[in-house]
Fold each of these.
Amino acid sequence: MKTSEFKKILKPLIRQTVKEVILEEGLLSGIVTEVAKGLQGNLIIEKKNEASSEKEEDYERERQRRIKKLNESNKFGDVFKGTKEVQEQSNGPLSGISPQDRGVDITAIQEIANGKWKRLM
């Protein structure tokens, strides 16, 4: 039997077995509990030094170089042109609305009501 055939047979069996052990025997909940306990008392504070900020700058320069090379090598041009950075998501009532959105103009409704809000309600 070839190793590729053996992998085809063995890989799904191992995947299913690991899945059963983690989910059915409660191992996952134990892992999550232990991680939560570990996170409660230990806060890790990262101090940035010049070396790490220099590494970050080098990484960003390399990233920009790769993007430029990608844009030059493809037939579509600048694939990132006109895109905006993704903002942090929140779960508030206006989470999907841009801060620059002016909303809906309700002055016409106010004019129709003509100061009779209490009767309309």
Amino acid sequence: MAHSDQVLATFQTRVRQMILQFQQLKKENEKLCAKIEQNEAQIKALQEQMAGQERSYQSLKMAKMIEITNSDLQGAKSRLAHLIRDVNKCIAVLSDEK
């Protein structure tokens, strides 16, 4: 009977150890699940931030294209005004020759 008592005591000890290990693993699992949820929330926030930055970039790119177009327009107006002055000078020279 002493042998069976010893086997039973060893079995009980191992069961307790397994229960303690299970509880530790359960706590660790809960911590890891919480960390996963936190990381997923952070990823979602970063993706939203990235989408906002992408929209801002597209708006800035469009504004820059419009700015280039406006400066080209100013340059074209300037060249056209210069050509008109040249034509007026030519007309004036031709008028003086008659």
